[in-house]
């Protein structure tokens, strides 16, 4: 199976029991070529003994992380609230005094229709001006986190 292009990226509120959201909504359109999944390698430790050169065992000491990032080209107060927190006063988005912890469920649907669903991600963003494309965009990064609902996998596909 090949996944080429995306149909959409959507957020949902994490379910009250800590499981995956039951409804998802798209925030805005994704700039072409910006979606990426970055999975880091697990950190491991070799267990060795004096009597031989090769390790007798290897253990994972820290599991690798998964970050999903993309750039959005749309702007409105709802998007700013969802990505950065803050408030809206008289139609104007206002930044928060302190960076909030924003967690959501995330669903990414490739054009082939088989979605990647992440029950719990930490959402961060930054405003970026891409001078080559002459466009302001919002760069979004989501770090996959362990769901709080027992028995819920950290992500699913299909």
Give an overview in words.
The chain has one helix and twelve strands. The strands form three sheets. Strands 1, 2, 3, 6, 9, 10, 11 and 12 form an eight-stranded antiparallel sheet that branches. A two-stranded antiparallel sheet has the order 4-5. A two-stranded antiparallel ribbon has the order 7-8. The protein has one domain. The mean pLDDT is 92. By secondary structure, it is mainly β. 5% of the residues lie in helices and 46% in strands. The chain has one helix at 77-84; strands spanning 6-12, 25-26, 36-39, 43-47, 57-62, 66-72, 87-89, 92-94, 102-110, 116-130, 135-144, 156-157.
Summarize, please:
With 158 residues, this protein is mostly beta strands.
Provide keyphrases for this structure.
158 residues, mainly beta, eight-stranded antiparallel beta sheet, 12 strands
């Amino acid at each position: 199976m090949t996944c080429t292009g995306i149909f959409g990226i959507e957020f949902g509120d994490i379910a009250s029991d800590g499981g995956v959201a039951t409804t998802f909504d798209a925030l805005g359109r994704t700039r072409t070529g910006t979606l990426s999944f970055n999975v880091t390698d697990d950190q491991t430790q070799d267990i060795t003994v004096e009597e031989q050169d090769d390790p007798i065992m290897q253990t994972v000491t820290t599991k690798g992380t998964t970050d999903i990032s993309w750039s959005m080209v749309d702007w409105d107060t709802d998007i700013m609230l969802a990505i950065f927190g803050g408030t809206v006063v008289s139609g104007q988005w206002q930044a928060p005094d302190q960076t909030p912890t924003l967690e959501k469920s995330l669903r990414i649907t490739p054009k082939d229709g088989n979605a990647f669903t992440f029950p719990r991600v930490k959402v961060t963003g930054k405003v970026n001006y891409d001078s080559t494309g002459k466009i302001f965009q919002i760069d979004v990064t989501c770090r996959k986190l362990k769901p709080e609902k027992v028995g819920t996998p950290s992500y699913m596909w299909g």
